[in-house]
Amino acid sequence: MMVCEYKPGLEGIPAAQSSISYVDGQKGILEYRGIRIEELAAKSTFLETAYLLIWGELPSKEELKAFEEEVRLHRRIKYRIRDMMKSFPESGHPMDALQASAAALGLFYSLRDLHNPAYIRDSVVRLIATIPTMVAAFQLMRKGNDPVKPRDDLDYSANFLYMLNEKEPDALAAKIFDICLILHVEHTMNASTFSARVTASTLTDPYAVVASAVGTLGGPLHGGANEEVIQMLEEIGSVENVRPYVEERLQNKQKLMGFGHRVYKVKDPRAIILQELAEQLFDKFGGDKYYDIAQEMERVVEEKLGHKGIYPNVDFYSGLVYRKMGIPTDLFTPIFAIARVAGWLAHWKEQLAENRIFRPTQVYNGKHEVPYTPLEQR
Ligand SMILES: CC(=O)SCCNC(=O)CCNC(=O)[C@H](O)C(C)(C)COP(=O)(O)OP(=O)(O)OC[C@H]1O[C@@H](n2cnc3c(N)ncnc32)[C@H](O)[C@@H]1OP(=O)(O)O
Ligand SMILES: O=C([O-])CC(=O)C(=O)O
To answer: Which pathway does the record list (predicted)?
Structure first.
């Protein structure tokens, strides 16, 4: 067997062959099934892009209509899931509530028919349809309200915003939210997708696959950074404080949230679009002082760390978009998960098509032949 050099964080090690998405980190290019995200953000919808990723081709009109209809029909969550969620502590993080609820969904669909295309499709539809309902239901229940039932006359993103805020969203906000989902749906072998593929490789059910990926996405080095960015901008508080804040963090060897990426060495192409979306919202609904702080921070960080290829990533501007929509900060990462579930499921399907269980090796650096010391001698 060939012995490879150990690479912390598996940097540069391919973990799969995949035709789902592609990143050029030097040029700042991201493609889904070969189509640039700029084009999808301008012309597609989240459900159409999800279909593209999962089934490999853009759907025909009829295929898209059928997929949208199936998703619409599966939006409601079971009473027993709702009751279980009601018993979660209100102070708990919504990502934990989502992870537990996604796993609990598997209790209702325990048959694992992984070779049956109908099972794959049903699971995909059910997860994409119900995850937004779970996120909105937890949000309302932790405030002491009853969850709102999905509205069949609203499309995917408008319905989520309606379930969250108990009122029909502004059309521009709903459109921008849908574009945000497109921008977050997929990103090659990131940590949560790797986690999804490892779980999938054991041939467990898709609910376990999604639950493990949700758990991985929540960490502050990954999807959880979008929440931390807003907390950081709030802590900075003013444009004048940006430079001393950045300098102090760097001096203390602390990370600046929303900056840096394993693959991108230029500004993340998603951050460029998210920044434009934030500006569209500010034009319509008024500005946000945290945007001025964020822009100053981008300038200072580029000056200090640009030579290392550290620029804003997807998590830097997304929170400002969601904030302007009135979404609470701790829902930013669950919203990331609402989008990314389609990417995880595309990888689940791809993994199953040519599965081999993930079982890497390790470089053992412990002891050998250690004698057992009896308890009374320790
Ligand atoms: C959806 C997503 O997951 S996007 C990423 C979201 N995460 C964040 O925004 C958290 C902040 N960023 C980071 O922690 C990192 O840039 C990561 C996790 C995204 C990538 O990590 P890695 O590829 O392992 O890079 P690593 O942490 O080894 O950093 C490499 C160098 O850049 C520096 N660096 C990387 N990111 C940052 C940052 N955000 N702030 C300050 N310095 C940074 C490191 O200190 C290190 O410097 P050194 O070589 O002088 O020691
Ligand atoms: O690719 C990564 O490592 C992280 C990322 O940007 C994502 O998952 O969207």
So the answer is: Carbohydrate metabolism; tricarboxylic acid cycle
Q: What pLDDT was estimated at residue 253?
A: 97
In the numeric block, the tokens 């460029």 are attached to 272
Which of 184, 146, 351, 369 has its CA nearest to residue 274? 184
Q: Are 312 and 271 contacting, i.e. CB atoms less than 8 angstroms apart?
A: yes
| Residues annotated as catalytic (active site), given as ranges | 261, 315
3-state SS, residue 27? coil
Q: Which one-letter DSSP state was computed for residue 359?
A: -
* CB neighbour list of residue 337: distance below 8 Å, 6 or more residues apart: 95, 98, 131, 135, 213, 214, 217, 223
Closest CA to ligand 2's atom 3: 190
d(CA 222, ligand 2 centre) in Å: 7
What pLDDT sits at residue 51? 98
Tell me the C-alpha distance between 275 and 258, whole Å: 13
Give the distance (Å) from ligand 2 centre to CA of residue 187: 5
Sequence-ordered strand ranges (E) for the chain: 21-24, 29-32, 35-36
Identify the residue whose tokens are 């459109």.
175
User: How many residues make up the chain in this entry?
Assistant: 378
Nearest CA to ligand 2 atom 8: 190
Residue 313 CA, closest ligand 2 atom number: 6
SS3 of 214-227: the string is HHHHCCCCCCCHHH
What is the value of ipTM here, to two decimals?
0.99
Write down the pTM of the prediction. 0.97
Residues of the chain with pLDDT under 70: 1-3
Q: Is the CB of 183 under 6 A from ligand 2?
A: no
187 CA: nearest ligand 1 atom: 1
> Is residue 207 within 8 Å of residue 100, measured between CB atoms?
no
What single-letter DSSP state applies at residue 313?
A: -
